[in-house]
Amino acid sequence: MSANAKTNRFQTFEERTNPDLVAPRVNALRDQLKANNIDAFLVPRADAHRGENVPAGDERLAYISSFTGSAGTAIVGTEKAALVVDGRYTLQAPKQTDTNIFEIVDLSPTATADWLIANLKKGNKVGYDGWLHTPKEIETLDAKLAKAGIELVEVSNMVDAIWEDRPAPPTNDIYTLDDAQTGKSAADKLTELQKQMAEKNADYLVLTLPESTNWLLNIRGSDISNTPVSLGFAIVPQQGVTRCFVQPEKINPVIQAELSDVTVLEPIEELEEALTSTTTDAVWFDDATAPIKLVNIAKSVGATIINDKDPIVIAKARKNPAEVEGMKAAQTSDAVAMVRFLSWLDAEAPKGKLTETEIVEKLEDCRRQSNELLDISFETISGSGPNGAIVHYRVTENTNRTLNPGELMLVDSGGQYRNGTTDITRTMTTGDTTPDQRKHFTLVLKGMIALSRVHFHKGATGAHLDVLARQFLWNEGLNYAHGTGHGVGALLGVHEGPCGISGINHNVLEEGNILSNEPGFYLEGEYGIRIENLIMVVPSEKNDKFLKFETLTYTPIDLRLIDKDLMTPEEIEWLNDYHQQCYDLIADRLEDDKKEWLKQATRAI
Fold it and tell me: Looking at the record's lineage, which domain of life comes first (predicted)?
């Protein structure tokens, strides 16, 4: 992966949002609507692969609305428009878009349908791009709109029609991982997958998620920032090798030969024709992630459609011993980098001269010292003072502010190392602390510890455990508007399904799942607090029907922000043991001054 040429770093700070561009672009899109007899058009933050990170040419939501969040949908009608976002972006969205044009709508399961029904009339048509929506999405939306007499219509993408300088698709090289790192050969993975297909009587399985294809074939790439995947689609037959459809520039004799026992690479332009050959066959799609465009092609030639979850999503979430070893090694490398960074921050922050961008740059430099860093795993959230209260804040040249002594500093970051993926958040003080800061920090910490210590029955889900992290905040009438944890890939996406910890995640937690544990608290206009470790599901020693979490992240938690009086003896014991492990794990890998800082930062309380 290549860093930015100007800065030689992966993260840059250019302003990607410009509300002044919203009006002319929306007006141009409305001209397209009228020319095509369409009354509204849906613009999701999605590409055909449903990725959290998308290529520049698929940033349609940002192009039309100037909103740069990783999730959301714009609805552009001929007269009115809405921007639907979740709780992570309720502060960010109004600042980035033109609110004279876009009404900001809080996400709910029916938000898009409700807005369309409230603002359109019977007989109106709503256009959508079949590459950017799933069958489940369209079927759910269509059922609601039909009752109001509003018709959903698949059309060519109307944003593309007005986007004159739209970037071309990425064509970066594919590379392979060896079996020692992946823990299983691609041939063995394919054999196991094909057995599952036979049990389902599926003649073909269509893979549309790049993480699934990359995991299956033991390949990686650099088509998108922060997630080391090569984009493409795959058709897996019940017998024989996979057909993988990619940009033709990626296809060369060397990579074809390396993958010849499991797949043949073909130009992306041949994908649709390949699906037309599935006449009378049973074709397996994940209707929650596959583009409805592809499903409709298979239907049109008479194929029987099997709608079920992508089986690789569950398989790759169960990390095997080799993947676990790699992930642990990555967390250790990251802990060394974090201690170097935190000791520097501790020395420099009280001087009152550090900016948010300097903090991001220093952290990346510390990670690069390992010589194992391929990329950052997401853009670092570097929120000083009030900016820390913006859950998914991204610092730019325009928003960059100086960290003042006494303010809290929230840094949420991660790396893509050669052997695994990391994600960690630490909130630090930069001077004297207030009683409220210490109270809120300790309530968040208590929730993080509760989740770290829990033993739970096999079959439990993230929805069962989410309240453990929130209980202490809830008891004070406080909460946070994001999930408590998400799955994490092994040298793949830092946000990985299906497991997670939130009130709405009902996927069963299984041994080998790696998740984040990140409760938080946000006081708008003042500060944000989040503490995040990665944890892994492992067997419980209490009972063979129970599981527990093993902590993977070992980086000090700021003791100066803890109100010890609010903690129980068991919580204090956990924290002291945790900090001793932090010291034992990495002290010998540090320079003398950093080692001394770590000793103080991990002292028992």
Answer: Bacteria
Q: What is the pLDDT of residue 5?
A: 39
pLDDT at 7: 54
Contact 103, 82 (CB under 8 A): yes
- As a whole number, the mean pLDDT across the chain is 96
Question: pLDDT by residue (tens digit) across 73-117?
Answer: 999 999 999 999 998 888 889 999 999 999 999 999 999 999 999
- Quick check: 2 pLDDT over 60? no
> What would be the CATH architecture of the domain defined by 19-162?
3-Layer(aba) Sandwich (3.40)
Encoded tokens for 173:
């090289």
Burial class (CB in 10 A: 0-12, 13-18, 19+), 572: middle
- The two tokens of residue 46 are 């999605």
Under DSSP, the state recorded for 177 is -
DSSP assignment of 200-267:
TT-SEEEE--HHHHHHHHTEE--SSSSS-----EEEEESSSPEEEEE-GGG--HHHHHHTTTTEEEEE
Omega prior to 498 cis, within 30 of 0: yes
| pLDDT one-digit tens code per residue, 234-271 | 999 999 999 999 999 999 999 999 999 999 999 999 99
Q: What is the spatial distance between Cα 280 and Cα 555, in angstroms, rounded to a whole number?
A: 56
Q: Is 194 helix (H, G, I), strand (E, B) or coil?
A: helix
Q: Is CATH 3.40.50.12650 the classification given to domain 318-594?
A: no
Alpha-helix residue ranges (DSSP H) falling in 51-152: 60-65, 92-96, 111-119, 135-147
Residues 8 and 381: beta-carbon distance below 8 Å: no
Q: Using one digit for the tens of pLDDT, what is the confidence trace for 527-572?
A: 999 999 999 999 999 999 999 999 999 999 999 999 999 999 999 9
For residue range 458-502, list pLDDT tens digits in order: 999 999 999 999 999 999 999 999 999 999 999 999 999 999 999
Pairing of strands 304-307, 282-285: parallel
Task: State CA 409 to chain mean position distance.
Answer: 22
Portions of the chain given CATH number 3.40.350.10: 19-162, 175-316
Question: Can you list the positions of beta strands (E) in 461-510?
Answer: 485-487, 496-501
- Pairing of β 204-207 and β 125-128: unpaired
Euclidean distance between CA atoms 436 and 241, whole angstroms: 60
pLDDT for position 91: 85
Output the CA torsion sign for 368, 17, 397, 519: negative
Question: Mean per-residue pLDDT for 128-135?
Answer: 98
> What's residue 519's pLDDT?
98
Output the CA–CA distances (angstroms, integers) from residue 265 to 205, 214, 262, 270, in the order listed: 16, 13, 10, 11
Predicted confidence at residue 4, as pLDDT, reads: 47
Nearest to 191 by CA among 284, 286, 262: 262
CA-wise closest residue to 488 among 478, 500, 480, 477: 500
Q: Which CATH number fits domain 175-316: 3.40.350.10, 3.20.20.80, 3.40.50.620, 3.40.50.800?
A: 3.40.350.10
Counting other chains too, the contacts that 98-103 makes at CB distance below 8 Å and 24 or more residues apart are 98/19, 98/20, 98/22, 98/23, 98/66, 100/23, 101/22, 101/23, 101/26, 102/22, 102/65, 102/74
As given in the structure block, the two tokens for residue 346 are 């501790």
User: Are 532 and 516 in contact, with CB atoms under 8 Å apart?
Assistant: yes
Region of residue 371 (phi > 0: left; psi between -120 and 50: alpha; otherwise: beta) = left
User: Under DSSP, is residue 2 helix (H, G, I), strand (E, B) or coil?
Assistant: coil
